[in-house]
Amino acid sequence: MSDLTPEQKARQGWMSVLAKAPPKRLAALFEAFGPAPDHTWLRPCEIGGVMVRGRAGGTGAPFNIGEMTVTRCALQLASGEVGHAYVQGRDKGHATRAALIDALMQTEQGGALRRAVLDPLEAEMAAGKAVRAEKAAATKVDFFTMVRGED
Amino acid sequence: MYVAVKGGERAIDNAHRWLAEERRGDREVSELTIPQIREQLSLAVQRVMAEGSLYDPDLAALAMKQARGDMIEAIFLIRAYRTTLPRIGHAAPVETGSMACDRRISATFKDVPGGQVLGPTFDYTHRLLDFALEAEGLKPEAAPATAPAHAGDMPRVTDFLNQDGLIQSETPSDDTPPDMTRQPMEYPAGRPLRLQALTRGDEGFVLSMAYSTQRGYAKNHPFVGELRIGAVAVQMKIPELGFAIEIGEVTLTECETVNQFTGSKTEPAQFTRGYGLVFGQSERKAISMALVDRALRWEELGEDNLGAPAQDEEFVLSHADNIQATGFLEHIKLPHYVDFQSELELVRRIRAGTETEKKEVAE
């Protein structure tokens, strides 16, 4: 993935944030940004499964663990930009908002949208992760072996 | 053989209505919500996801509510739902090396880099009933978030051993793994298929198989090299775009065991490995899976087949699935009237024959 263009890298970044965002929070932030733009469906929302894989020993041959639910859709704004979404779970509203934002990010509203929706989302998600990591760190122990008496 | 029967619609309908009423229980008690189950019975929810083979906490919580807490029934509901989902694609193998670890311990190295991180564990609790939980409305104390978080990826314990060549390394590959939900099982299954069957296998069954190896049936002397629990990102290549994005995040438990070594006159002695990776926070299952994985590798590692159940791939894999097992087991309660009629006839005929013979002998 190192040979992506800067535009692709940026898009990869926001699509990943949108996929993992808490749906309610995304809805609230997007609503506050303004009314949702008109769009036509290229692919209406579809709920499906994606097979999640692991590797034997963490680094060896791939194997299937099980599926996760994913909702995807594709749409086009009246101005022509195409938005895609692949989001975890079965929330069609979440997928629709993610696709709309993906499309809007390609317009001149991109900068404002980043500041109003993506930046706060990213910051909140990072803060949540940081608190969890700090809680984990607070449970770090130092085991010590007892002296047994003999030499 | 079970033969389809007709009739009984009204009885069935009434039975299901009563089931719904019993499920609800005493109406004086407030009804459980899906978020309550998801948040407060999270380990049960995660087990339903692991064995139901579908990561979706809300669905798993719904299945538990519908099944009145019968775990296998809930897993059955999830498996049935799963078959209705179109397969959108497959994700890239998860990078457990960059897991955001809630818990990470090693039983082999006291001073493991990154440290022994206990996380929200039952270990070291006294297993005494906590009557404070019986009183409703008590606010739990918030967990302290007082220590600076570990920066960067948590290093793998097996990597330290690997540096000195003391443990076998895994052969990296990008082969497409076989999928038992798409093709019928074939034996010998191979390790990727075995790992899939074990990760969705019944926790009790996999635990018992693992326990049998510890008790001497296919002894493989394991140490928990590392156990880690936490969230990992799931990446999938989006065909329309030609690049991969993160489509979500799953909580996984990973266990790597360090096992008794192999070696010969030509090859230096080396530790071997077993591997477990399971949806959710489920270390009992992940450790069990690693032990059974290791036992099933006897042939590849040039060990003797001791005839132990845990070494028998076909035995383990064909009995690990609790939905298959319960389906076959419970079907015998369904009407077998015709079948049984013929058995009844047969017994009567044989008995009649014996009676005649007796009479003949007497005469």
Number of domains of chain A: 1
Total helical segments of chain B: 12
Helix-residue proportion of chain B: 25-40%
Largest sheet of chain A: 3 strands, antiparallel
- Poorly predicted regions of chain B: none
* Secondary-structure element order of chain A, N to C: HHEEEHHE
**How does the overall form of chain A come out from the CA principal axes?**
extended
Overall geometric form of chain B: globular
DSSP, total strands of chain A = 4
Counting structural domains of chain B, the number is 3
Strand order of the largest sheet of chain A: 1-2-3
Beta percentage of chain B is 15-25%
Strand segment count of chain B? 7
Arithmetic mean of pLDDT of chain B? 92
Write up this protein:
Chain A is extended, with a radius of gyration of 21 Å. Chain A has 4 helices and 4 strands. The model of chain A has no long low-confidence stretch (mean pLDDT 93). Chain A has 151 residues and is α+β, with helices and mostly antiparallel strands. In chain A, helix 1 (6-20) runs antiparallel to helix 3, helix 2 crosses helix 3 (92-104) and helix 2 runs antiparallel to helix 4. Chain A has one domain (6-126). Chain B is an alpha+beta fold and 363 residues long. Chain B has 3 domains: 9-82, no CATH class; 96-120 and 151-320, no CATH class; 336-362. Chain B has helices spanning 9-24, 34-40, 42-52, 57-66, 71-82, 157-163, 191-199, 203-214, 283-296, 313-319, 322-330, 337-362; strands at 54-55, 87-90, 100-105, 116-117, 223-238, 243-262, 270-279. In chain B, strands 3-5-6-7 form a 4-stranded antiparallel beta sheet. In chain B, strand 5 (223-238) and strand 6 form a beta hairpin. The radius of gyration of chain B is 26 Å and the shape is globular. Chains A and B meet through helix 1, strand 1, strand 2, strand 3 and helix 4 of A and helix 3, strand 1, strand 2, strand 3 and strand 4 of B. Strand 1 (39-55) of chain A pairs parallel with strand 2 of chain B.
